[in-house]
């Protein structure tokens, strides 16, 4: 195969032009941002023809990106996974050697690091919700994912909601600790509260209740908001929904791991958790908390809504880099 010379900026613009018709705006913006670092690196290294990229050069970029970005392992993995998709696309236009994308290395993340750092990125959440709105509107999976992301609630809290806990006029949800009927809240009575929900969330809930929710009660005679034909939705079902819908290929993205969906083990029924990109419910909560903090929502408001102390947010949830925090403080201080 003969490679066709192409400079980094031209390749980038062609790639973005193709993606504009196939991914959500937030995903496109994320790709622009992440690949912008590659353009900077190529300029620093005087790389004017991407034909010259090699596995060694890609590893040099990885180390450079890690050093200039104050990245967590998870953020570094996200960066490199996007790069892998871009390199695979370059192969399709004869810009780099075939299978070069397989040489893009990502950091290994231990289970302990996973539990501390893994989160659903905001652009991925938006792409997932866009997909669900278009193809599975007001389905149980759509409602479940919408609540997990927009409310920052724990899985057990989402499962605990009853029909009567939703007030469409006040646009609110009431959280109640009811251990005697199998729906405890983690913080017990201290976890009880009323939270506001947006028009977007209400539209999904209204359509679910009116058109698709099975009219059933649970084993205690309560009417669960999230119900199946057999009663209240189970935690295993919520967990399965999260693993299923966070596979990139499920919501219209290219596989960042170079897999073919036709023979990928994660594409098999109930095997979605085997996808390296799929996540359980808790990363929805961590990602949502970080997203609201990045959006300049006061930490006190996030703490009250998510029912978690500010110290715990700092220790376990807030994935902003020190530089991000500094820039947010600057925006406030510059107004003084």
UniProtKB/TrEMBL annotation:
<feature type="domain" description="Tyr recombinase">
    <location>
        <begin position="115"/>
        <end position="331"/>
    </location>
</feature>
<dbReference type="InterPro" id="IPR050090">
    <property type="entry name" value="Tyrosine_recombinase_XerCD"/>
</dbReference>
<dbReference type="GO" id="GO:0006310">
    <property type="term" value="P:DNA recombination"/>
</dbReference>
<dbReference type="Pfam" id="PF00589">
    <property type="entry name" value="Phage_integrase"/>
</dbReference>
<feature type="region of interest" description="Disordered">
    <location>
        <begin position="316"/>
        <end position="336"/>
    </location>
</feature>
<dbReference type="InterPro" id="IPR044068">
    <property type="entry name" value="CB"/>
</dbReference>
<keyword id="KW-0229">DNA integration</keyword>
<dbReference type="InterPro" id="IPR011010">
    <property type="entry name" value="DNA_brk_join_enz"/>
</dbReference>
<dbReference type="InterPro" id="IPR010998">
    <property type="entry name" value="Integrase_recombinase_N"/>
</dbReference>
<keyword id="KW-0233">DNA recombination</keyword>
<feature type="domain" description="Core-binding (CB)">
    <location>
        <begin position="6"/>
        <end position="91"/>
    </location>
</feature>
<dbReference type="GO" id="GO:0015074">
    <property type="term" value="P:DNA integration"/>
</dbReference>
<dbReference type="InterPro" id="IPR002104">
    <property type="entry name" value="Integrase_catalytic"/>
</dbReference>
<protein>
    <submittedName>
        <fullName>Tyrosine-type recombinase/integrase</fullName>
    </submittedName>
</protein>
<dbReference type="GO" id="GO:0003677">
    <property type="term" value="F:DNA binding"/>
</dbReference>
<keyword id="KW-0238">DNA-binding</keyword>
<dbReference type="InterPro" id="IPR013762">
    <property type="entry name" value="Integrase-like_cat_sf"/>
</dbReference>
């Amino acid at each position: 195969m003969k490679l066709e010379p192409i400079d980094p900026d031209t390749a980038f613009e062609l790639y973005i032009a193709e993606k504009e018709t196939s991914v959500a705006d937030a995903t496109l913006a994320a790709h622009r941002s992440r690949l912008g670092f590659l353009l900077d690196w190529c300029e620093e290294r005087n790389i004017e023809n991407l034909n010259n990229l090699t596995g060694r050069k890609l590893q040099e970029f990885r180390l450079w990106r890690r050093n200039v970005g104050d990245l967590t392992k998870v953020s570094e993995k996200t960066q490199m996974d996007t790069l892998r998709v871009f390199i695979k696309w370059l192969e399709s236009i004869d810009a780099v050697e075939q299978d070069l994308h397989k040489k893009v290395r990502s950091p290994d993340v231990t289970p302990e690091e996973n539990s501390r750092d893994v989160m659903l990125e905001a652009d991925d959440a938006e792409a997932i919700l866009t997909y669900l709105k278009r193809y599975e509107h007001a389905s149980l999976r759509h409602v479940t994912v919408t609540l997990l992301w927009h409310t920052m609630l724990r899985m057990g809290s989402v499962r605990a909601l009853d029909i009567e806990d939703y007030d469409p006029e006040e646009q609110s949800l009431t959280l109640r600790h009811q251990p005697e009927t199998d729906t405890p809240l983690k913080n017990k009575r201290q976890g009880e509260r009323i939270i506001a929900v947006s028009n977007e969330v209400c539209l999904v809930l209204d359509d679910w209740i009116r058109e698709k929710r099975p009219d059933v009660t649970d084993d205690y005679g309560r009417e669960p908001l999230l119900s199946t034909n057999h009663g209240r939705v189970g935690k295993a079902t919520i967990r399965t929904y999260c693993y299923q819908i966070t596979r990139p290929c499920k919501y219209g993205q290219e596989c960042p791991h170079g897999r073919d969906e036709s023979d990928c083990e994660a594409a098999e029924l109930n095997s979605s958790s085997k996808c390296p990109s799929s996540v359980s419910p808790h990363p929805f909560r961590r990602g949502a908390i970080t997203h609201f903090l990045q959006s300049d929502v006061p930490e006190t408001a996030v703490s009250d809504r998510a029912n978690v102390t500010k110290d715990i947010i700092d220790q376990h949830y807030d994935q902003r880099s020190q530089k991000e925090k500094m820039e947010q403080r600057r925006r406030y201080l510059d107004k003084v």
